[in-house]
Please model this.
Amino acid sequence: MRKIHLGRFSAIILLFVLIGSGCSTRKSDETSFDQINQAIKDSLRTRNISFIEKAIRQGKAEARDSDEYYNFVVQDMVRYFYTAQPDSMMLSTDSVVRYVSKEPFTELRNRLMIKSMQAKGLYYTQFVFDSDSMLFYQKEACRYAEMNTDVEEQMLCYANLADAYKFSGDLSMSAMTYRRAIALADSIHTAKENYIPLYSGLAATYTTLRDFEQSAIWWDKCGELWDLMMLYEQFNYLNSRGNDYFYQEDYQRALETFLQLDSFLQEHPDMEWERHFCKANLSDIYLKLHEPEKAKPLIGETLEYFGSSGYNEMALDHLHTQQMELALQEHDFRKADELVARYPFTTEMRSEQGLLRLDFLKRFYVAKSDWKRAFEYEEAYTTLSDSLRNERVRMKTAEVRMRYERDATILNQYLVISDKEAELMRIYALLAGITAVVLALVMWYFYHRKQVKLREEQMLRRIVSMKMENARNRITPHFIYNALNHELLARQEGRPSSLGVLVDMLRQGQSLASVFCTTLREELDFINLYVAVEGESLGGNFEYKVSVAEDVDLNEVRLPSMMVQIFVENAIKHGLKSLPREADKHLTVQVLHREDAIQIEVLNNGPLPVLQSGRDKSQTGLRVVSQIIQLLNTRNKRHMRFDLCDYHGPDGEQGCRALLVIPDGYNFDMNE
Model:
């Protein structure tokens, strides 16, 4: 019974890993194929068989070609294995083999063949114990796997082959093949969960060889991966660890482990086979602990279950041995004789089953004082034990040879790798030198380009600043002369003098001319003085207004100094002065906050100026305004702008409109 478990559940786990995840590796224009495969894989983890059946039907119906269709036939093989339908499993396997055999080679079809060979091997492992057929098909699976470039596929095939060697009794080859699979797993840094069947398989091999020091090492490695185990892997670990304690004759720890397994299975009532399997192991331990009253009902229940399945001859052999042991402990020699005659010992029994039966027979005939037969069975038991010990020696020798060969291979690989690394380092050094030179040249180019651009910008800023300063200083002697004439005429006519206003305007204009930016309040204060002086020449019907919205703080709004003054000067010079002296003249400066920007409008009811000559001072002022705005806009995401256009007031008044828009948070620093 114990050996059945070690093989059966190693096979189940490897079948799950190899087949349960599907066979397709090609890219698809649609995702449904991969989604169905993933859903089947997830459902296998939870043993949701009804969903798997539905998903396979859907997959077959939606398959776009034969490769995809037979992928789901492989999934059917898994389902039949889990639900113990060996005949249906073999029919599906044969159909896949027929299809692949007639088609050209591809890696996908080769994978389908690998799964089919593995399935056939598992059939002869689980349902029909035929070690030759089992070993043949697992070797075939490895042969097909070696045609593919997928090292992980090869690793898993070697794991199945190792399990087959263990079933056939070639334990040294089993251990070597498991170690070969583990070495491949290490070389590709496979996922940790893929080590579970490898560690458990190798540990079980050492358990069979009664090398408990080695088996403990590998069972401990396997136990560290408990959280990554699937349901069947957790079952396999607990059951196999219990077997290991059993063969060490540490029956108390074996009992504790199998009771833990029994509690585990209570949470999964659909695992009926596994539950009876655990009970068969428990009954064996109770017999070893001389508690036949606990073993008897378990033996009866498991005999009924395994006897009705028709695919568990080894299980029945072990249970018959338990029946004999139970009769002996109950001192029912007549029944024990009857069972020995009905189920005789044969050399075809597996070594574990044979040792258990021979151990019982020698003790039974000692109890009957049949010393001749007791001696014969003692001799047979010793011979079989010696063969296992010889197997251990042979395996140790094989392992030493394998490790030597592997170490020599690794050493040669290290030497080759060292040479390649040295060559690679020389190439890296050359590339690093070339890269450093190229980077230095690129950095020098961009640095030189940046310096040239910086000098160009500095020159442009200086030119624009000089033009702006010139525009600010456009209060010419002619303007002062006209203003003084107005003052003299006012005094002759006895009107009040505004000479003080002119002096204030000149003083403030000189102050503004020395700075690049100012506040809107300072700008408007200067404009008020300018209009007070210049407005005298427009006559008594001149009206000037300043309108500031309530949400505008004049002290917080910044702008290039005397920029709005240029608009006001143009409005008076080219707009209002062109009107007849007796006509009404209106000039309005309006400040609003709209769309996250300050809008400054200079409105007058004169005509739109026609700027003809490039030497016209007003045209020069507007050109300088345009240049300074362009320069500042290169340093801001949101741009400042100005516009000069016709104006149509709500009361029907027409004239000229100059607009300056300054976005909120605008940066006026010319040096950045």
